[in-house]
Amino acid sequence: MRIVIAEDDALLREGLALLLRAEQLDVVAVTGAPDTFLAAVDEHRPDVAIVDVRMPPTHTDEGIVAAVEARRRQPGLAVLVLSAYVEQAFATDLLAGGAARLGYLLKERVGRVEEFLEALHRVAGGGTAIDPEVVRQLFARTRPDSTLSLLSPRERDVLALMAEGLGNTAIAERLFVTEGAVHKHIRSIFAKLGLAPDDRADRRVTAVLRHLEDTRRLG
């Protein structure tokens, strides 16, 4: 797995590189600015880019903008975004372009090495990994008149775990229920959200995006 790291905090940047190299992963470039990050993507054609949300010069959304541009230049590039805080609009903007090969984690998650590496491998493998705290805060902001208010508490639990990127087996293990029960809850979620079977769309991703867009309107 070839990785480019874009993080303006030198300590975190070098710490990430050391951690990943210790795991026998190939860190091909480390950088602290959006322009040099994009140059590294063009040069090395990595499998995964780890990108900080806030980067120079304004420390607002340069990392997000660079991540979106990197995925435009290299379709199929897996991107794992790191943020110090829950920034819901940025999460929504990223997912709006498609959730495959995309992760959004709080920086504190890096200190939980096994969880961080699991998320990295999930994203590299074509999946999605959204930090549980991001999901929790987004769900806490759902309006009473939201379509998602139609979901039962258990269905909301299932949708939250779907948003983290977990598959049915992992959801069943987390909730201590059978896979059959998870499948039934997911079918009910799709029905309540009006998501009919459609080969052109991933209903799991659409359900998560529906929630993110709803909470974004609230904000």
Automatic annotation (TrEMBL):
PROSITE patterns: HTH_LUXR_2 (PS50043), RESPONSE_REGULATORY (PS50110). Residues 144-215 form the HTH luxR-type domain. SUPFAM superfamilies: C-terminal effector domain of the bipartite response regulators, CheY-like. Keywords: DNA-binding, Phosphoprotein, Transcription, Transcription regulation. It comes from the Bacteria. InterPro entries: CheY-like_superfamily (IPR011006), NreC/VraR/RcsB-like_REC (IPR058245), Sig_transdc_resp-reg_C-effctor (IPR016032), Sig_transdc_resp-reg_receiver (IPR001789), Tscrpt_reg_LuxR_C (IPR000792), WalR-like (IPR039420). Residues 2-122 form the Response regulatory domain. Pfam families: GerE (PF00196), Response_reg (PF00072). The modification 4-aspartylphosphate is found at D52. Signal peptide: none annotated. This is Response regulator transcription factor. It comes from Dactylosporangium maewongense.
